[in-house]
Amino acid sequence: MAALSAERFFKRLLTDDDRASLLAFNHDFHLLVPFTTNAEELGHGAIGLRGRGSTRLFDAIVYALSQFAGLGNRRALIVLSDGADVESDFPFGQVVAAAVQAGVAVYPISLLGVDRATPAQLAELADESGGRSYSVRSIDDLDRIYRQIEEQLRSQYLLVYRPPPNDRLEFRPVRVEVARPGLEAHNVHGYYP
How many whole angstroms separate alpha carbon 107 and alpha carbon 79? Predict the structure, then answer.
């Protein structure tokens, strides 16, 4: 069921200019499908995935973020997890910093039933990186969540500005406000030059 939802998502979302990859993780990481434009290949890569064993969730997120190096345009990471982080080497603060530095919006999907701390941390990660966080009760909810993520990815705008020169490579905060009633801005809270 989860594999079919993922394949439908890839088929709806990917254009000839888009690339996606598929990574499975538990106590280890497995790059199932490297970056490709082929939605069928991505769907086939997801067949048979099952949640089992301990979950090095934070380490897997940092590893996935490293895969975006050198890729331009919109960059988003969708993380589907049914477990809490166990035995990761990276503490949560470093995971958030890695997402912000990579310029990748993170969209975590937590299957309910995990501990309360993990979904709260993933919600913070989504907020800091410019993504959104979701919690679902069952795999049956994935199609709805993937449609919401697709809508968000298709309604993004890229705002560019050039700050005054600064020799220091320090975090630069950003705040975006929308004057039109009924609209919301979801954005990164800053960046590293």
Answer: 6
Domain holding 15, by residue range, is 2-158
The beta strand positions in the chain, using DSSP E, are 20-25, 29-36, 76-81, 105-111, 134-136, 172-173, 190-191
Q: Find the distance separating the first CA and the last CA of the chain, reported in whole Å.
A: 41
Q: Are 42 and 22 in contact (CB under 8 A)?
A: yes
pLDDT digit string, tens, across residues 162-193: 777 766 667 777 787 888 888 777 767 676 66
CA distance 103 to 85: 23
The DSSP 8-state label assigned to residue 92 in this structure reads H
Domain at 41, CATH number: 3.40.50.410
Q: What is the pLDDT of residues 70-112, one digit of tens each?
A: 887 778 999 988 768 888 999 999 999 999 889 899 999 988 7
Domain membership of residue 177 (yes or no) is no
For residues 163 and 183, the answer to whether their CB atoms sit within 8 Å is: no
